[in-house]
Amino acid sequence: MYIKQVAVIGAGTMGADIAYVMANAGIPVIVKDVDESALTRAQAHIADLFQARVARGRISAADAQGRRDLITMTTADAALVEATLAIEAVSEDMRVKKRVFQDLDRILPPLSLIVSNTSALSISELASVTGRPQRVAGFHFFFPAHLMKLVEVISGQKTSADTIETLRRLAEEIRKIPVSVKECPGFVVNRVLMASMAEILAFQQETQVPYSEIDQAVVKSGIAPMGPFMLADALGLDVALEVNRTLFQAYGDRFRPAPQLEALVEKGHLGLKTKQGFYSY
Ligand SMILES: NC(=O)c1ccc[n+]([C@@H]2O[C@H](COP(=O)([O-])OP(=O)(O)OC[C@H]3O[C@@H](n4cnc5c(N)ncnc54)[C@H](O)[C@@H]3O)[C@@H](O)[C@H]2O)c1
């Protein structure tokens, strides 16, 4: 199946970056959010990403403008009627996602694919609220999606081989590396990432070593380009906690959410997006 037009549902941290990645590869994108201000922020973020490519001499200003023009922002469902693929990137909440999947199933042409960027939730459960479970899959980008190469392509119980093949080809077209993954809570990368994060949080609580010292040590050691606390703040502590809770429910004690993380989210300190998380911004 040829993907002519992509719809991205949710213009937050991930949705905005995914829309940029699609447009940068020459694919028309419609971005839908229920919140106008999220669309405005996404537009500004995408403009910055294109501007940075122009400043580095990677593309001309005219090319950047041409690619930006491939993106349409909307709050209206009616704008999605011609999408051949919808990528759901709304909040990590099964109830919210199911409503979005039901709406997309009603609005999109019958042969279009509907995929989720969920970090940990069940693809089969999302597929079950649609009349096209064979055309539903996980298509999981990593933060920040404009830089990270890997995309997990996740089969639900009823996902067809054609759907997976189409998504793998699309991932290559947008210059990503697809990895096919069977469904399980957290898939592969987030199980590993959250297990490491749980251990680091436990270490921090036992030793009271400041977050900044741990982050600096991780970066200096070359294990990762960014320390775990800085990364968690950037990707959103609410999202991290939701993923953590899903893994805790599925796998038990080794993923018990850390008290520091729960306390921050309870106070509304969600990281960069609220200017307060493990760090103040
Ligand atoms: N943040 C990350 O690092 C990261 C990485 C990989 C995957 N994910 C996953 O991607 C998804 C989105 O995460 P995020 O960090 O971008 O979240 P976010 O909170 O930054 O953005 C979510 C957006 O969805 C919008 N939204 C909520 N309900 C909606 C609806 N019914 N219709 C349209 N828009 C709606 C919100 O207004 C908001 O703008 C989640 O499933 C998350 O687990 C996140």
UniProtKB/TrEMBL annotation:
InterPro entries: 3-OHacyl-CoA_DH, 3-OHacyl-CoA_DH_NAD-bd, 3HC_DH_C, 6-PGluconate_DH-like_C_sf, NAD(P)-bd_dom_sf. This is 3-hydroxybutyryl-CoA dehydrogenase. Keywords: Oxidoreductase. The keyword Oxidoreductase applies. It holds the Pfam family 3HCDH_N. GO terms for biological process: fatty acid metabolic process. Belongs to the 3-hydroxyacyl-CoA dehydrogenase family. Residues 186-281 form the 3-hydroxyacyl-CoA dehydrogenase C-terminal domain. GO terms for molecular function: NAD+ binding; oxidoreductase activity, acting on the CH-OH group of donors, NAD or NADP as acceptor. The keyword Oxidoreductase applies. The record marks 140 as: Important for catalytic activity. Pathway: Lipid metabolism; butanoate metabolism. Residues 5-184 form the 3-hydroxyacyl-CoA dehydrogenase NAD binding domain. Gene3D superfamilies: 1.10.1040.50, NAD(P)-binding Rossmann-like Domain.
